[in-house]
Amino acid sequence: MDTLINSLTDIVGKTGVLLGDDVAQRSVDWFTKASCQAKAIIRPQSTEQLSQVMTLCYEANQPVVTHGGLTGVVHGAVASPDELVVSLELMNQIEHIDAVGSTMQVQAGVTLQHVQEAAQEIDMQFALDLGARGSCTIGGNIATNAGGIRVIRYGMMRQQVLGLEVVLSDGTVVSSMNTMLKNNAGYDLKQMFMGSEGTLGIVTRAVLRLHPNMPSEQTAFVAVPSFDALTSLLKMASKELANSLSAFEALWNNHYALMTSATTKHTALLANNSLFYAIIETLGSDDEKDAEAFASVLEKALEAELITDAVLASSSSQREGIWAVREDIETLVHALDPMFSYDISLPITHMDEYVTALESKLKAQWPETCELVVFGHLGDGNLHIIVTVRDASQDARRQVEELVYGSLVKYNGSISAEHGVGLEKRDYLTLSRSPEEIALMKRLKQAMDPKGLLNPGKILA
Amino acid sequence: MDTLINSLTDIVGKTGVLLGDDVAQRSVDWFTKASCQAKAIIRPQSTEQLSQVMTLCYEANQPVVTHGGLTGVVHGAVASPDELVVSLELMNQIEHIDAVGSTMQVQAGVTLQHVQEAAQEIDMQFALDLGARGSCTIGGNIATNAGGIRVIRYGMMRQQVLGLEVVLSDGTVVSSMNTMLKNNAGYDLKQMFMGSEGTLGIVTRAVLRLHPNMPSEQTAFVAVPSFDALTSLLKMASKELANSLSAFEALWNNHYALMTSATTKHTALLANNSLFYAIIETLGSDDEKDAEAFASVLEKALEAELITDAVLASSSSQREGIWAVREDIETLVHALDPMFSYDISLPITHMDEYVTALESKLKAQWPETCELVVFGHLGDGNLHIIVTVRDASQDARRQVEELVYGSLVKYNGSISAEHGVGLEKRDYLTLSRSPEEIALMKRLKQAMDPKGLLNPGKILA
C-alpha cells in the first residue's frame, strides 16, 4: 500500500478505504458491468475529510474519479489502476427540511428515492424522477444534470438545485448553500458544476427545491397514426393541459412491438399496428376535475384523429403497467444483445426525418442483422435510440455511432440529451459543439482544475 | 476623435457611433438618471461587427461597458470617460419562431415586451415579466438574470434561455444556440454568462423558451392579519393552486398605506388597517373552472382566518388596478425622496423577524425622519425594501446599507435577489458570499476576461 493511501487512511479511517476485491467487485457502468480498476476507493464521512483528502491528492498529483450510485451509462465513472476513486456513499444524510421555504438540505451520497420519500412524508414532492431512482445519488444527479420523465413540467436536475457545496481539486471547500429561489449576488457558481461530470469539482452537499405534492395522476397510453399527428397531439396536450402536463413520452412502433412480443412480461395495452404510441401524464391536486379535463382532451384528440385508440389507467397497477413498457430496459438488453444505446436530442420537427434516414442507412449497411428501437421524451426533443447489428465489435460500434451522431449535425442536434459525455461520447463532442465552445470548456477546466486531477479524460480529451 | 474610434467607425459605420451630446443625454441608471460619461457609444449591427469591434478593443486594451435597455438600478451600466459603451440597440430583431419546438430566436437588443407580444401572436407566452418590460432588452435580462413577478411559476430568466451567443473580450464568438430542452453535451457554457452583468462576455443572440399561452388570469388582493397567516396562506395557495399559482406578492402595511394615502392615483382596494396584504394570481386555460377553484381557495382562507378581506378582479381594469399598486414605483420615489432602495432575499420564515428588527434599528438611529416600505415576491423569498431618512448624503446611505445588509448575515440572506450587484452592492458582496466563493468568481473572471476589459469594476473590485 503506498504512502498516499496510508495518509488518506489516517484521514478517513480504515472503514473509509476499500482495496483489492472490494474495489474490483464494483461495476462502473450499468450496461457493461465493467469492473472498477482504481487502486483504492476512498470514502470520506464529511466535507472536511474530503477537503483533507483532496489537499493531499493535489500535493501528490493524484488523479481522482468521483463515484455516486454508479448508474451512469457513458463510462463517466471508469477509473484506471493509477487513479483513486472518491465515493460519497458514506455521506448520505438528509440534513434539514424547510417546509415553508420548500427546501431540503442533503449530503451528496443520498439516493434520489430517499429524497423523494422524505419529501412525500411532508406532503411535498422532489420533482426529478428516473428509472434508477433507487440507486442513483443526488450528487450524481447533479454532476450529470440528470433529466428523466418530468422535465417537460419541472426541468432537469439543474432546476431542482438551489444551493451547492463543492470541494475543488486542491481541497478548497466552496460552499454556496443558498436556500432562496432568487439570489443574484455575484456569479451563480453552482451552475458550472452541474453537468460537469466530476471534472470541475466534487459535489458534497446541496440544497434542493421541493414542489407541492400532486396526489392526482392521470395516465394514458395512446396509439398515434403518424408523426404529424404526434406533434399535433403534443401541441394540443401542451396547450389544453398546460399547467398539469408532466410527461409526454413517445414510442416508435419498433419499440412497442418488441416490448409486447419479445416477452410475456407486458400485457399488450393496445394493438401493435400503429406507427407511434405515446404516454401522456398529468399531475394535479384534484382527482375528479383532473380526470375530467384529461378525458376531454383525449376525446378531442380522438375526434381530430390525432389518436386512434387509448387506454386510460384507472388504477395504480394499470399506471405501473403503462410505465413498465417504457421503463423496462432489461427486456431490450435481452432481446437486442449485443446492443448500442444512444441518447440524443434534436428539434422535434426534424425527428421523423432523422429517424427514417438513420434507419435506411443502418439497413443499407446491415440488411440482415440491423434492428432499431426508438422511444423517448418527445416534449423535450430527447430520443433514446437502441441499435443492434448483432456484432459487438468496436468496429461495428464505431460505424453505428458515426451514423447516429453524424446524421444529427444538419439539425444542430445533440449527441447527449441527458446521459452526459463521459468517455463514450467524447470523440463525438465536436459534432455537437463548435471549436470555440470546446476551447472555452478547456479554458474553464484549466482554470478550475489546473492539474487536471478530476475525472481525467472525461468529456474533454 | 482617437484612432481606435476611427477604426471602430470603419466597422460599424457612422450611424453606429454616438459621440458628445448623444452620449451624455443617456442616463445609465433608472433611479438616479445619472448621465453616461463614456467617450463613445458603439452600436454594432451584427455579431460579426461586434466581434471585429472587440478584437480591436482587446488589442488596444480598451475597456467596454455593454448597454441594453438601461433599466438597471445598481449602477451596472455606469461608464467612465476612458471607457467605451457597446449598445446592442441596433440588434433588435426576432429571427425565428418555432411553434412546435416552442422556441424563439432573437437578437439581444430586442425588448422584453416585443418578445412577449410576438409569443402572444402565435398563442404562446414568454414567461418572464417585469415592470420595465417596454424598455428592458432580452440581452439585459440575460446579463442580469432578471426575475420579476412570475418566478414562482416559471423561474427566472435563466430558465427561459435555451441557447446563447456571446462575444468574448478578445472578439471570439461563442455560439451555443441550442434549441432543445435537454442538452448535456459538455459544459453548459451559457450558464456562466447569465447573471454575470456583462463582466464575462457580451450577449448577442439567444434562443428563448416559450410556454403555452394562459388566457385565464385570476387575480385577488387580500388583507392578511399576521405574518404567520401570510406564510400559511402561501402554503395553502402553493398546495391548492399548485399548478396554476403564478404570483404571490406580499405588501407590508407601510407600503399599502402609503400607496393609498400619498396619492389619489390608486383607489383603495381594501381598508388600510391590516398588517399585511397579498396579491395572488393564477394562470390557466379554462376561465370558468379556474375562477371556481380560485374562489374556493379564497373562501377556505377566509374560513381559516388567514385572510380577513378580499377583492377578486372581475375585469382586466380591476386586475390592472391591483397590479398598479404593486408596480407603481414612481409614487414611492415621489413620497420618499430622497430614498434608498434594496432588493434582498432571505428564508421566508425569517422575514418578519428581519423586517421588525431592521425597522427598530432604523427608528433608533433616525427617530424623526425614517420611513420604511416593504413589499415583494414572498414566494421567492425576495423583498424590496425602500428606506428614507430624508438625507441623501453618502454617509446616510452607507449607514442605512449597513443596517439593511448587515442584518441579513445571520439568516444567510442575499444582498441581491434579482437586481444584481453592479457597483452599488459590490462592497457588500462579502456579506452574502464567502471568501472561497469570491476567489472562485475572480478565478473565473480572470480565465474569461484576462485583461479585465468587460464592465470593469462591476460585481468584483
TrEMBL record, chains A, B:
Keywords: FAD, Flavoprotein, Oxidoreductase. The keyword Oxidoreductase applies. PROSITE patterns: FAD_PCMH. Its cofactor is FAD. Residues 34-213 form the FAD-binding PCMH-type domain. InterPro entries: FAD-bd_oxidored_4_C, FAD-bd_PCMH, FAD-bd_PCMH-like_sf, FAD-bd_PCMH_sub2, FAD-linked_Oxase-like_C, FAD-oxidored/transferase_4, Oxid_FAD_bind_N, Vanillyl_alc_oxidase_C-sub2. It holds the Pfam family FAD-oxidase_C. Belongs to the FAD-binding oxidoreductase/transferase type 4 family. This is FAD-binding oxidoreductase. The lineage of its organism: Bacteria, Pseudomonadati, Pseudomonadota, Gammaproteobacteria, Oceanospirillales.
